[in-house]
Amino acid sequence: MRDNSMISLLLAAAFLLTGCSENSNISKTGSTEDISADRTSELSRTVIESSGTDTVMTTNELFEFDPHLYVPSFSEDIPQDYWESFYNLCDALRAGDSVFECSSEEAYNWATSWATLNELFPAACLRITGESNDGSVPFENGTGRIYYQMPVDEFVARESEFEKMVTDIINSQLECDDTAFEKCLKLYDYIESNFTYEDYDYESEDGSHYYTLMNKSGLCAQLAGVYSYLLMQAGVEAVNVGCYDPSISHSWTYIIIDGKGYHSDPTWGLKQYTGNDLALYYFLMTDERREESGCPVSDLNAQLLPEYWESRSNIDFSATDESLTFPAQSFYERLDEENKIMYYDSSEGQQTFSYS
Q1: Domain ranges within the chain, ordered by starting residue
Q2: Full-model pTM
Q3: Which of 29, 124, 144, 218 is 20–30 Å from 327 (CA)?
Q4: pLDDT digit string (tens) for 196-215?
Q5: Helix crossing, 105-112 with 80-95: angle to 10°?
Q6: CATH class of residue range 6-13+182-354
Q7: What single-letter DSSP state applies at residue 279?
Q8: Residue 220, C-beta contacts closer than 8 angstroms, at least 6 positions apart
Q9: Whose CA is closest to 117, among 140, 148, 143, 139?
């Protein structure tokens, strides 16, 4: 369970808070305040309920797939034009195009890297590349080329299928008025209940977050990446992080709620280890608890960061707030969402936690 291989580390690695049916865009004004200025689209579904001779029409919002995920806390280390170029790539991939508008060769390399795609656009990870396979120049004069590693029509179908699966997961687990805490808890429960820790043949499988989502199994880096990805799709800033130490290499998810950081470990909390109970010990941990569990947090790494290590960046992955940390031997029971109360069992019996 505690994978000590360098491969796991290399496969380790958010997004501005958004509601349902919204897409993120970065404005070209250069101001980070404009990043979500155009999020105005809405999607709804109509449900017809019959009672006797009366028919009632009700409308429920749905989450839409967001191809333009963003990590606000990375804005100092990843230039805005990199994000714009990456979003142009995502739009081109969804359409099956072979070129996209790109600001620079550096932005092109970041946008087409397997790490960026794995964390932010998983269906394209290892299925497209920025390395020429036909003698053409990958980037020149503001245009980047896309080198598909599979037939283009098959890739577009693959991406479409993936988007449907992701939106089905989000809409089956969450409601649009859920708080960030509720989203984190519900998706954590989904991962812990439906996924397993399982090694695979690196020569035959791509080891991507896409593979883990489709097959519901993977190593710590993939499980953490999947949890991060689903949280970002739900509008919660999250990122796949990891530690590397002579004694352990491990990955988990770093989450930001109301400007405060927390560590959540979707691997060590899996129900394959805890039975049918959702253990809360590894959910929204502080630095102290993460250290106590055996993972050093002095210099974390994240695949999305150009310099990889926290110490070489402007990023702070600290987690000091204890208000959402639960006692050891505590297990989730249920939510009273109307009153914003969570019930959980502990060694002292049933407890309540108000998260309003």
Answers
A1: 6-13+182-354
A2: 0.84
A3: 218
A4: 998 765 555 566 899 999 99
A5: 60
A6: alpha beta
A7: B
A8: 1, 3, 8, 12, 197, 242, 250, 251, 252, 267
A9: 148
